[in-house]
Amino acid sequence: MRKNDTAGSLVARLAAILLLIPPIVAGRMSQSDTFTVALTAAIPLWFVMKLIFWMRDPRPEKALRAGAARLGLIALPILLICLVPLIMSRAAEVKAFAMGFAKKGGAEVVSEMSLRRTLWHRAFERGIESGMLGFGPGPHLQIPAQIAADHANDPPMAYHSVPPQNGTADYESHNTLLDVFTQGGLLAVGSLLWVMMRSIKCAYRAHTAGLVGSLAGIAIFMTADNIIRQPLVWFVIVLGLTAFDWSSSESSGFLQFRRGA
Questions:
Q1: Which pLDDT score, from 0 to 100, does residue 56 have?
Q2: Structure confidence by residue, pLDDT tens digits, 118-154
Q3: pTM (2 decimals)?
Q4: In the beta sheet, which residues pair with residue 219?
Q5: What's the distance, Cα to Cα, between the start and end of the chain in Å?
């Protein structure tokens, strides 16, 4: 029998909820708009995945929960449709509320999006220039004039988030797929997408809603930064790739161990 990612006791569930607080607080302190978007998307996805897994639970003692999950999945789209007129009538208030969660109150959203579109366009062009084979590891874009001007008077430091302005192509597009495209070409992009899709599929088959939500959050973060260098990203991907194997064999392996003993 497959197991989902629900804790087995009330204490474990409370501990898991409490452990959510530090990363959420740290994410908000980082003033990352991508973190807010990823969290806003991952939580509803986790909830929907939970309903789907509960609905597909074949155990007779969970029949009531499965029925409630079916009812929730039917009612959820209807509820969202009913909320559309209310949201449209309060569009200005909803926009102001959303901008309140953005960095600096959303004052730099337009300029930042324009800058990112420019970087993404340049990265795509550089990938095409390489014959879609990539230029190898490392950044391959010129630093944008806007960023160069903003950091022109920065004091020299041993480490800085902005590379030195010496005329070399030493800037990244801040998009994982485009950075992989400029470095490894189309084959590298296809390989990364295959690994991600395979990990999500295995996590779904293992009924681990938490992993599905985490992988969705990683996919969102990929649009705003080159995050494949982070070990935690690959840790979550590997957990997703192996989730179905350990969840489907956990019970049978434990029984075989007991019989052997």
A1: 86
A2: 899 999 999 999 999 999 988 888 887 777 666 666 6
A3: 0.80
A4: none
A5: 22
Short-list 76, 68, 46, CA closest to 210: 46
Two structure tokens written together for 46: 């986790």
Tokens encoding 208: 């681990």
Helix or strand (DSSP H, E) at 183 = helix 176-205
Q: Range of 43's domain? A: 10-102+109-149+167-260
- Any idea how long the chain is? 261
Q: For residue 113, is it within any domain?
A: yes
Number of domains in the chain: 1
Query: Residue 67: inside a domain, yes or no?
Result: yes
The CB density around residue 204, as the number of other CB atoms within 10 Å, is 19
Which residues have CB under 8 Å from 112's CB, separation 6+? none
Domain membership flag for residue 114: yes
- Express each pLDDT in 219-253 by its tens digit: 999 998 889 988 989 999 999 999 876 655 554 44
For residue 196, pLDDT beyond 90: yes
Ranges of H-type helices in the chain: 10-29, 33-55, 63-89, 91-99, 109-129, 145-150, 176-205, 209-221, 231-260
59: in domain: yes
Q: What is the mean pLDDT of the chain?
A: 81
pLDDT value at residue 116? 87
Closest CA to 247 of 205, 206, 203: 206
Measuring CA to CA, which residue among 217, 202, 199, 136 is closest to residue 169?
136
Which residues are within 8 A (CB) of 10 and not within 5 positions of it... i.e. 6 or more apart? none
